[in-house]
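Try this one yourself first.
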């Protein structure tokens, strides 16, 4: 509280540019404090992300280049490591949900491919942002859900098996559908080479996941040690990616950051809302509707950042994904906590016709 008070005073006195070290210390102290409470553990990672973002905003020079090496070159390898970890944790069982709950999978995947891309397009059109930054809003909408959605589904007492199945299917479809959706919806903002984007996503998703599946198949239980380490490595990788993107796009972010955060927040919250009611209108259970809401609202910001980097537009198109990632973890944690205290109805939802 003391740090927060000092920072507030400095802001009121017009000394925000000198408050960097205190802001960084505040977020680190906040994360340390949250770690002591089980109910707040879910947002410790997000608070650390904010600390990293603050460091990048105040000291961007340390996250752009070291000697002759540009740190943006780390982004795609980090995404590949995360996807490899996802592959090591996957098995054929993850797709059994297709047969156990085909309707739920169909509703979830169609919601994922329909709601967020269209919402992204609408928000990009009304934003009046430069074309490449506007295209980044569409890009996050056209990306699949990520493993964070599985964690939130578990905390929300949703259908974890359905969540994992939807995440797996949407991720494997991404190399083919994300470029097509981007061409259709973002083509007026930036030039989209469908085949080049497909190959870029194949390298970031299919090849690493395939390698992870093979690794898991060959080593079996001997790979368990890696599965235990991958969540931490994935979070660390995402944190590094977001910090590098923030540093690269610092000037643009300072200029439009407030408006971009508002639009990204609307995008995220409408994903939850529309995903939930889309599922309910199609007569899914309360538990499955929660699952689909989380799957739709939480996107793979790391993958979107990797795509932006592969297009050479990290400092512009990569901004929306960089903002979306930490924000969705906060809203997702709040929503999951709310639902956790309210067990879902077990019977089929009966809606008024």
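Now uncover the answer:
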């Amino acid at each position: 509280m003391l740090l927060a008070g000092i920072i507030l005073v400095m802001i009121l006195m017009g000394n925000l540019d000198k408050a960097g070290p205190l802001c960084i210390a505040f977020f680190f102290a906040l994360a340390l404090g949250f770690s002591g409470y089980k109910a707040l553990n879910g947002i410790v990672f997000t608070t650390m992300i904010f600390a990293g973002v603050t460091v990048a905003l105040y000291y961007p020079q340390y996250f752009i280049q070291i000697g002759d090496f540009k740190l943006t070159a780390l982004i795609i390898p980090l995404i590949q490591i995360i996807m490899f970890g996802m592959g090591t944790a996957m098995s054929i069982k993850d797709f059994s949900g297709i047969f156990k709950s085909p309707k739920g999978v169909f509703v979830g995947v169609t919601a994922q491919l329909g709601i967020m891309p269209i919402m992204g397009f609408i928000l990009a059109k009304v934003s009046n942002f430069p074309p490449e930054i506007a295209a980044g809003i569409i890009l996050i909408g056209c990306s699949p859900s990520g493993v964070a959605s599985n964690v939130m589904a578990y905390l929300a007492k949703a259908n974890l098996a359905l969540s994992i199945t939807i995440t797996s299917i949407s991720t494997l479809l991404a190399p083919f559908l994300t470029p097509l959706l981007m061409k259709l919806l973002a083509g007026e903002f930036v030039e989209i080479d469908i085949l080049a984007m497909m190959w870029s996503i194949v390298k970031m998703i299919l090849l690493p996941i395939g390698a992870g599946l093979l690794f898991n198949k060959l080593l079996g239980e001997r790979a368990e040690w890696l599965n235990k380490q991958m969540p931490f490595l994935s979070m660390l990788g995402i944190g590094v990616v977001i910090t590098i993107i923030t540093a690269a796009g610092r000037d643009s972010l300072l200029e439009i950051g407030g408006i971009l955060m508002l639009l990204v927040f609307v995008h995220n919250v409408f994903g939850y809302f529309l995903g939930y009611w889309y599922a309910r209108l199609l007569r899914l259970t309360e538990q499955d509707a929660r699952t689909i809401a989380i799957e739709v609202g939480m996107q793979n910001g790391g993958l979107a950042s990797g795509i932006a980097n592969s297009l050479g537009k990290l400092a512009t198109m990569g901004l929306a994904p960089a903002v979306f990632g930490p924000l969705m973890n906060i809203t997702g944690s709040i929503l999951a906590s709310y639902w956790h205290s309210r067990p879902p109805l077990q019977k089929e939802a009966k809606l008024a016709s």
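Discussion: Strands lie at 65-66, 69-70. Confidence is low (pLDDT under 50) at residues 348-353.
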